[in-house]
Automatic annotation (TrEMBL):
Location of the protein in the cell: Nucleus
Family listed: Belongs to the IPI1/TEX10 family.
GO cellular component labels: nucleus; rixosome complex
Ranges of residues in domain Pre-rRNA-processing protein Ipi1 N-terminal: 122-222
Recorded superkingdom: Eukaryota
Organism, scientific name: Cordyceps javanica
Lineage start: Eukaryota, Fungi, Dikarya, Ascomycota, Pezizomycotina
Chief location category: nucleus
Pfam family, one: Ipi1_N
Protein name (record): Pre-rRNA-processing protein
GO biological process: rRNA processing
Keyword rRNA processing assigned: yes
Amino acid sequence: MGSSMKKKKEKQKDFQVFGKAKAKASNFTDTTIVMGHQSLSTEAPDVVQQFKHNLSLASSSRSDKQRKDALAYLTGQLSLEPPVNPVGTAAVLAKLVPLISDSATPVRQQLLKLLRVLPGDQVAPVVEHTVMFLRAGMTHLSGDISNDALAAMDWLLDVAGDELVTCPGGWVRTLTTFCAVMGWAVASSAKGWTSAANTRTTLKPKDAQNRARQIATLARFLQAGLRDEVPAASTGAQFLDNLYRAPRSGNAFEYLNLFTAQRDEDAEMYPNKEARQQIFHKRFLDAVLKGIDQTKKEGGVTGRAAVGLEQVLAKGMNDFEVSTALDTQDLLDLW
């Protein structure tokens, strides 16, 4: 009878636990994987959309790595034969050139690689916009950012040097930036004001290398602006047109600045060598010569760079003659 009762109790126990989960072990670990809702497609993303997406990431992402990776993707697309660029060089530069002042060094280095694969003939129309950000980068408090902006300036001189020195503000404002970076005192267009001069006579090795690089890029810039121009061949008909045909321009004598607002020397275009020589002599020559003399005394790599700059300057200004024409601004001052 005892055996029968025991079996009956075991059956009742089994009936009570039927349908219940088995007790979990003490060392149990929940490894459940939750899958998010995903849409699967057999078609790859459109190349145009990928390019635009990465262009947006490069210019606006808060992640340094994401900006760098997006720039690397764009560089790869622009390096293909033929290059893939559905938005055009102007749009790429407008979005990306502000990154020259990016706080992340890998981002700036990748940007420099991207700039070098852009077609030079398509950079020329947007030089004015591009150089504004390069000048801002050159005057940045961070030496690394300033150096990378200087490297970008070298690139711009390679692909669009003529457009750089002739675009509005490209000549005077860029020269002002160079002199400010090196601490060479330059008189501004407002009378009585000068920038602080750099009175250091010795530089640390790293600073000396940076200064030599700045001087070398300045020499290239002056060489681009002061080199001899090759006159275009003219025909007899063009000569007669210049003498007798009425000007077609709405304001043919605008260059005289007789009836317009006060001239802004900083933002003006200087389309020829003579015009650039005149404003350089007026605003920058003394400061640059003093800076060269001071730098030559330091010797070393900076002294050699200063000698190279001196040679470029001597060649570029050897045919310069001071204009005897009275500037209209001088007339206003006398009045």
